Structure formats: C-alpha cells, structure tokens
C-alpha cells in the first residue's frame, strides 16, 4: 500500500477527484476555519490519494483541504499516493481517517491560550465542556489593606488604558460613553457584571469596617437623591449595553431599596428582567433598631436578545432524575438556583463598603459565559472580577474611577499571575 519512504508530490489540482462516497460534510464555520488556517500557513498536510491505475487520483483523505485550496486558487497541491486497487479497502481507509481522530487531553488543552483555541475553531460550548470540571475559583489571598497602604501617590492617571494579559483596565468614568468605548475598542462584551455604589449613605472613609481606609471620598457620593442616583445607574447601564453584543447577560448588584429602579431601567433599555439573585451570607452585622438583620445582598439579572447559557450545567430534571443519571449533587442543584451561598469576607478586612469575595463570581460567570468571552465590569474596585475571569479563562474589561484602585488592581493581577501589566495608550 505504502512504501517505507513516503514521497510527497506536487500535483495539478484539476487532476484530483473527490471520492463520491466521502461521508464528511462541513458547515460554514468549519469551512471558514479551514480557509483561515490554509490562508495563514499554507497546505502543510498533504492529501492522501489513490495511485492504483483503476483508481488513479481519487482522493481518500483531505477532501476539505482540496475544497478550500480550490476556492483559494491553488493550482498545485501536495499529495501522497497510496496503491489501493480494491475500492472497498479504499472506502475503509477513508472512513478510518474520518473516524479515528482520538480525543483531546483536556488537562493539556486548559493550559493553552483561550484566544488561540477559539481562533483555530473551538466553539465556546466546546470550551465550556472542556473546562467546566477543571476550572473553579479560589481566593487569591491578596492583602488589599497592605497593598493599599503602599500606594501613597498612584501611578495611574485618568485616561490610562492597560493590558493585563488578555484583560483590560481603564482609569476612567463609567458614566462617560467615550471612556467605555475607549476600553472596549472594537471588542464587544458577552456579559455585563457590575457592582456600583449602593447609595446607602456609607462614608467611604470608614466604610463598614473599622480601619477608616477608603480613598474614594472625593470621587464617590453615596448619598444621592433618587433622581440623581437613577441617572447614575442609567448612564452606566446605557454605556455598558452600547459596547455589548446584541445577545447579552446583565448583572447589576444593588441595595434592596433600589431593586425597583434597576428593574425599571432594564425594561426601559430593552433588557428583560429574569431573576433577582440573592447572595446569602454566612454571617451578618447586628442591627438592633431593625426587626430583622440583613443577611443577603441582591443582584438584578436580566438578558437582552437570546444569549446562550452554558449547556453543560444540568437542569433540575437531570439532577433529580435517576434514569437520566444518578441523583445529582448538592452543588449541581445550587449552581442553577438564584440563591448564592458564599462565605463573606471578614468585616474588618473590608476595603470597599460593599466588598464581595472572588468566589461569588463563579456561578454567574460559569453559567452565563464561556472561556474566552468578555466580562464587562464598569466598577472595578479591588479587581475581584478580573481575578475571577483569569481563573475561569474569561476576559475581564474593567473601568475604575480611582487611580489608587487602578494601581491596586494592577498589583493584584501581577502578584497572582507573575505577568506585568502594560500601558497601551
């Protein structure tokens, strides 16, 4: 069938004949991916072609490459000839070449650059399938208080745009559409995940901790009137939607007294209200003058268009149905309900009045985004969204108003990854 010394020949493309029985078919994405590959690298993989006299120039393996090479105007193509007189043997080899492609080593795939995987043709759903079981969030152990104390004069200036690996950070204003557009460039967000000030009259110099360590009192007024706060939230929502895909998941955290405001703004701007998600904390601060202590924080979740959900996260029927699979775990069930049971940070460690642990990002980001997709956060804070995105192989695009906190986010990223941020403007 094949000599020991494989010989590659350049053959006139018009002489080659596709096998009429070839069972492979290709959709537009496959054709586009192969066209991109051949355009960039050429034909580096020769076709397998029958050289037997009665089957001369019948293609056995490489029909897709032949099709794309023809479309790209190739006149010659590399070929390895095989001598297979028996057409049934020829068909068998064709099927084996199409079928025997092996499986992916997911442990090796997960260390590759996500953009590279997407560029070569993996779909977001495929990446979710690869990474669902191996990617999870852990606390990065970053000491926010200690690092803030080191930043006496911030290096970041308003307007500075940074690349942090696959992520971006702009020292800018979420309320300015030009700033948000500068952050995104030609990219579009797949998920909006924002945690704006709650407008509950917190003193940002003291917060709810005990150390009086906030730097943002000149930048943030947390005691706006309802109309002013409504405009603040509306402007940030509009700016986020303007740089997002038509099909988008939207998450905005808020105090309980402003749930109605966000729900109204969602409807006004074409976002369908889906759920009110509740972060149930493991402890609380006593409020003796109020009948019931607060143990939750609220996130208003909505969608515009028809954004995709991670198809690998089971629904309730699959979790509970023994015939589909064994009874699912508690974690499987909790991953799809609107109650998020996540341990809060210690109050005395708070560096932001409504600080949230990194692990709180896991459920919404895993459920409503895929590896390689962009998460837009217009209120960067200490950078929790970015660190979560780094661990989950998403891309975080952040705006942060305070130059000190921009420096903090950069320090956090560099300590976690060992890589350096680059100013790109």
Care to describe what's here?
- The protein has 425 residues and is of the alpha/beta class.
- It has 2 domains: 8-102, Alpha-Beta Complex (Conserved hypothetical protein from pyrococcus furiosus pfu- 392566-001, ParB domain); 125-423, Rossmann fold (3-Layer(aba) Sandwich), CATH 3.40.50.150.
- Helices cover 32% and strands 19% of the residues.
- It has 15 helices and 15 strands.
- It has helices at residues 28-41, 63-71, 87-99, 106-109, 114-119, 124-131, 144-150, 177-184, 226-242, 259-268, 316-320, 330-334, 362-368, 384-392, 403-417; strands at 8-12, 17-18, 47-50, 58-61, 76-82, 161-164, 167-171, 189-194, 244-254, 272-280, 296-304, 339-341, 374-377, 395-400, 422-423.
- The strands form 2 sheets. Strands 12-10-11-9-8-13-14-7-6-15 form a 10-stranded mixed sheet, sandwiched between helices.
- Helix 1 (28-41) crosses helix 2 (63-71) and helix 9 (226-242) crosses helix 10 (259-268).
- It is elongated and about 95 Å long.
- The termini are far apart.
Keywords:
single chain, 425 residues, alpha/beta, Conserved hypothetical protein from pyrococcus furiosus pfu- 392566-001, ParB domain, Rossmann fold, 2 domains, 10-stranded mixed beta sheet, 5-stranded mixed beta sheet
Q: What's the name of the CATH homologous superfamily of the largest domain? A: Vaccinia Virus protein VP39
Contiguous low-pLDDT stretches (5 residues minimum) are: 207-218
Q: Give the radius of gyration.
A: 27 Å
- Terminal CA distance reads 60 Å
Order of strands across the widest beta sheet? Answer: 12-10-11-9-8-13-14-7-6-15
Order of helices and strands: EEHEEHEHHHHHEEHEHEHEEHHEHEHEHE
- The CATH C-level name of the largest domain is Alpha Beta
Q: How many structural domains can be distinguished in the coordinates?
A: 2
Largest sheet: 10 strands, mixed
InterPro entries: Chromosome_partition/occlusion, DNA_methylase_N4/N6, DNA_methylase_N6_adenine_CS, DNA_MeTrfase_ParB, ParB/Sulfiredoxin_sf, ParB_N, RM_Methyltransferase, SAM-dependent_MTases_sf
Protein name: Methyltransferase
EC number: 2.1.1.-
Pfam family, one: ParB_N
């Amino acid at each position: 069938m094949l000599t020991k010394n494989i010989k590659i020949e350049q053959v006139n493309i018009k002489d080659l004949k596709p096998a009429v029985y070839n069972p492979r078919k290709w959709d537009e994405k496959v054709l586009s991916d192969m066209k991109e590959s051949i355009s960039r690298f050429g034909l580096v993989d020769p076709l397998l072609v029958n050289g037997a006299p009665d089957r001369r120039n019948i293609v056995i393996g490489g029909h897709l490459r032949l099709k794309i090479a023809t479309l790209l105007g190739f006149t010659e193509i590399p070929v390895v000839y095989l001598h297979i007189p028996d057409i049934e043997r020829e068909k068998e080899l064709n099927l084996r070449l199409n079928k025997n492609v092996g499986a992916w080593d997911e442990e090796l795939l997960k260390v590759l650059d996500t953009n590279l995987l997407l560029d070569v043709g993996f779909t977001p759903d495929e990446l979710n399938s690869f990474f669902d079981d191996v990617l999870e969030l852990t606390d990065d152990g970053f000491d926010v208080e200690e690092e803030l104390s080191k930043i006496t004069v911030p290096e970041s200036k308003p307007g500075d745009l940074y690349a942090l690996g696959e992520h971006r950070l702009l020292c800018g204003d979420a309320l300015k559409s030009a700033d948000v557009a500068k952050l995104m460039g030609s990219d579009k967000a797949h998920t909006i995940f924002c945690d704006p000030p709650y407008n509950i009259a917190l003193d940002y110099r003291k917060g709810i901790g005990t150390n009086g360590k906030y730097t943002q009192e000149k930048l943030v007024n947390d005691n706006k009137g309802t109309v002013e706060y409504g405009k603040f939230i509306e402007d940030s929502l509009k700016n986020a939607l303007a740089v997002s895909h038509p099909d988008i998941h939207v998450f905005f955290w808020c105090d309980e007294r402003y749930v109605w405001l966000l729900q109204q703004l969602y409807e006004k701007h074409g976002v369908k209200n889906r759920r009110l998600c509740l972060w149930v904390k493991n402890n609380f601060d006593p409020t003796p003058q109020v009948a019931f202590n607060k143990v939750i924080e609220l996130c208003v979740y909505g969608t515009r268009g028809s954004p995709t959900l991670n198809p690998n996260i089971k629904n309730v029927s699959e979790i509970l149905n023994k015939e589909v699979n064994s009874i699912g775990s508690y974690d499987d069930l909790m991953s799809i309900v609107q109650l998020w049971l996540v341990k809060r940070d210690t109050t005395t460690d708070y560096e932001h009045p409504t600080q949230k642990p990194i692990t709180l990002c896991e459920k919404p980001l895993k459920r409503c985004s895929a590896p390689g997709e962009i998460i837009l956060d217009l209120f960067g804070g200490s950078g929790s969204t970015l660190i979560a995105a780094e661990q989950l192989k998403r891309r975080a695009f952040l705006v942060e108003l305070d130059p000190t906190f921009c420096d903090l986010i950069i320090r956090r990223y560099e300590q976690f990854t060992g890589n350096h941020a680059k100013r790109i403007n």
